[in-house]
C-alpha cells in the first residue's frame, strides 16, 4: 500500500505454500531484502535497513502462526479451504426460488456484492411476476445498492464471440454505466499462444458482505428463470446458499480471482481496486481452479467413489471420462470401473446409477447442419460410456460377463396434452408432478428386487411406451443418420391413433427411461474438420 495515498498496490494472501525470507543469507545476497511468496506470486522487497527486514519477517511469522495458520495447513483432497463444521446451508432447485432469495439477500447488502458468472443478463427480473415494476430487475437492484454506497464487483467470462452469443461486452457496458460503484472485469483474453483460447470460466457466484454466498449451476440470465414444475431443459439446475465462515471461503476465492484478473489486465487502473478478505477474530468448499486448488473436487469425487460401500448415484449434465486417455485426464470412469470390479471379485451387491440428459443442451438437430456441437458432446459421452475399448462398459466387459448387473444409465422424459393434442415435450424431466400410481419401496436401492424389478423394469417399460407413441429421438432403433431421416418422416401413433396412444400412456410410471447406448452406434459423431468444433482441440469438450 502506498503510505501517502493509501492506494493498495498489491495483495498476497496466506496459502499452504506461503513463505517469508529476510537478510542476505535467505534472499540471494540482498542485505535489506524481504521475499514473500505464495502459490501465485513472489514479491521481492527492499527495506530501509536489514533490521527492518528482520522485523517484518518476525511480524509475518507471528501472523502465520496465529490468524494465518489455517491457510498454511493441508486440507482434505489438497483443497485450498478447510472443512467448516456445523454450517447453515440451503439449496434451491431451478431458477425461480434461487433468484428470489438472491434478490432478497442482495437487498440486505451494506458493504459489498461480488458476482461471478458465465452469462449475465442485466435486465432479468429476479422476482416474478413483476408486480412492482422494475424494482426487482437485476440492473435496478445493483443500481439501487450502488447508490446506497455498496461496492459491486462483477467477474464475467469473456467469450469467444464466434462460438457464443452471450455478449459479455454488452453486460459490462450496461452495468458500469449504472453507477461508479459498479466495477466489471472480463476474463480471459483469447490468444492461441497463452492457452486461454480453449477454456471458460463457468462458475456462478454471488457473495454479499462476505457473509452470505450463493454457489451452484444457475446463471443470472434469461434462460434460467424457470419453475420447479416447468423445467427449461432435460434436468433441474441446482444452486445453494451458505452463511458465515463457509461463505467467507467463497468470498476469498472470488477475491483471489478478481485480484489475479486485475493484475493481469488492469494493474495500474485505480478504478479497479484490489480486494481483501474481511478478517474475523463444517461446510467444505471445493473448487476447480488449476493453479490454486489442484483439482480438489475431482480428487474428492474419486475418493468418494472408491470408498462407496453400497451404491453410487450420479446425476450430471455431462459425462466425459475415458479410462487411460490422452484426451480426457479425469479418473472418474477409471475409479468407477475399479470399484465395480472389486464388487464382482468380492461377490458383493453394488450398484451404480447414472442419470444423464438424453441429448446435450445445445442448439441443432441430429444429422442436420448446425448440430455439430450437439453431436460433438454426444461423441465424447458415448466414448466415455460404451464405445471403444477405453469406455466404462467395454472396460468392464473384459472382467465381468454382464456389467449391467451393476450399472444402469438412465434419463427422463415426459409428455403433456396441449390444446387437446398429445405432445412429447422435448426431453423435459417433468411437466407436472403427479402422484405415483403405486408405492415403490426405496429402502434398499442395492437389492435385486429394486434394481432389476423396479428401476430397470420401469425404465425399460417407459422407454418402450414413449417409442411406440411419439417416435422419440434418441432411441436405440436408430443406428445411423439415414435411419434418423426415415424415422422422423413417419407419423407417430399420437397423431394417427390418439385414443390408442392415450391407452399406452396410462402404463407410464414416473419419468424414468433408458439412456440409448446404441443410438447412432454406426455413425461418426466426431466433429468434422470444416466445423468450428473440429477446428478447436478436443480439450474444449473434455
UniProtKB/TrEMBL annotation:
**Catalytic function, reaction form:** a 1,2-diacyl-sn-glycero-3-phosphocholine + H2O = a 1,2-diacyl-sn-glycero-3-phosphate + choline + H(+)
Q: What keywords sit in the KW lines? A: Hydrolase, Lipid degradation, Lipid metabolism, Repeat
- Note whether Repeat occurs among the keywords: yes
Write out the GO biological process terms: intracellular signal transduction; phosphatidic acid biosynthetic process; phospholipid catabolic process; regulation of vesicle-mediated transport
| Domain PLD phosphodiesterase positions | 197-224
- Which InterPro entries does the record match to this protein? PLipase_D/transphosphatidylase, PLipase_D_euk, PLipase_D_fam
Domain of life, per lineage: Eukaryota
Keyword set includes Isomerase: no
- What EC number(s) does the entry state? 3.1.4.4
- SMART domains according to UniProt: PLDc
Membrane-crossing residue ranges in chain numbering: none
A molecular function (GO) held by this record is: phospholipase D activity
Q: Which Gene3D superfamilies match?
A: Endonuclease Chain A
- List the PANTHER family: PHOSPHOLIPASE, PHOSPHOLIPASE D
Protein name per Swiss-Prot or TrEMBL = phospholipase D
